[in-house]
C-alpha cells in the first residue's frame, strides 16, 4: 500500500509558476461573511408567509395543551381575542380554524350551525382583530360521530358501493352549507380539506348564490393519505372510528395524479392551491408551482412534522430554531408562497431577532 496522503492539488506547494489546477470559480467567495450571504440569499422567509392553525373548543377558560404537540393548545372562545392579538403582533397575517363540537352525529350538524364553535370563534377573532384573516377548514371529520370526512353509505343508499364508503355528492351538499355558514360568520377564506370530487365547484356555486362571490377558496387540492396527521387527530378529535381515508385522500406514491387534482381544482374555481403534508412532498410542491404558476400555493407543514421536531428538540437532539427555520425555508424554496405551520409564532419571533 502507498501510505502517502492523498494530494489533491500539489501544485501550489511545489511550484511558483502558472497554477492552472486552481479553481477560478470559487462559490465560497460569496459566503465569506453574513453580509455577502444575505445579499445573495435566494429565498426569504418572513412572518407574513405563515398561517397559524387554531383549535377551538366549547367551554370557559380552556387552554389545553396537545400531548403530542407541545406549545399547541385547544382554546375556548373567551381566550381567543387575546390569542388573536398575540398572533397578529408577531406579524402573522392569518389563522386557520379547526373546531371541536359539543356533540357529534352522523352528519355533523354543528358544522353549519350559526352558533357552532368555528362560527363563534370567527366572530370573536374578527371583532377583536379585524385585520387578522380567518381561514376556516371545511370538512366533516371533526363533527361526525364516525370521524369520517363525509356522509357514509349505509348499504341501502348505494347497494353497489361498500358499507361505510364516503358518499361524494351527498357530502357536497353538507360542505356547501358549512362554507356558507363560515362566510356568514365572517370568515375571510374557506378551505375545503376533504378531497371529495367536485368540492370546489360546489362550494363556489354555493357561496356565489349566497352573495359571497368575494370569498376566496383555498383548496386542499393535493392532500395525501398520510401517517403524519396522527397528532392532529388527537388535537381535533377527528380520527376515523374505523377504516381510513384512502378512498378520497391521495396515495403517497403518486405525483402525476397530484397535477390532475390541482388542474381540476383550478378549473372548478379554486383561488389558491395547497399541497399537504409538506416535507415528504417537496417535489409535489415544486411541480405544482411549475405547472400552475398563476395561482398562489400553500403548503401544510402538518402535525406529525411538527411533533417530530418538537420531540427531537426536547431531547436535545436538534437545535429547534435552526431546523425549524431550515425546514420552513426548504418548503418555501420548493415553491410554496404560504405555509400553514404550528411553528408560526416561534418562527416569526426568531425571524425578527
Ligand atoms: C381534515 C384535516 C386534517 C388535517 C387538516 N384538516 C386531518 C385529516 O385529514 O385526517 C391534518 C392537519 C395536521 O395534521 O396538522 N379536517
Report helical residue fraction.
25-40%
- Counting DSSP H or I runs of 4 or more residues, the number of helices is 12
- What radius of gyration results from the CA coordinates? 24 Å
Span between termini: 54 Å
H and E string: HHEEEHEHEEEHEHEHHEHEHHEH
Strand composition percent: 15-25%
User: What class, by secondary structure content?
Assistant: alpha/beta
Q: Mind summarizing the main beta sheet? A: 10 strands, mixed
Total E-strand runs: 12
Instruction: Tell the overall outline.
Output: globular
Bound molecules: ligand PBG
Mean pLDDT reading = 94
Low-confidence stretches: none
What features would you describe in this structure?
The chain has 353 residues and is α/β, with parallel strands linked by helices. It is built from twelve helices and twelve strands. Strands 1, 2, 3, 4, 5, 8, 9, 10, 11 and 12 form a ten-stranded mixed β-sheet that branches. Strands 6-7 form a two-stranded antiparallel sheet. The chain is globular, with a radius of gyration of 24 Å. The structure holds ligand PBG. Residues 137, 139, 141, 193, 229, 232, 238, 245, 302-303 line the site of ligand PBG.
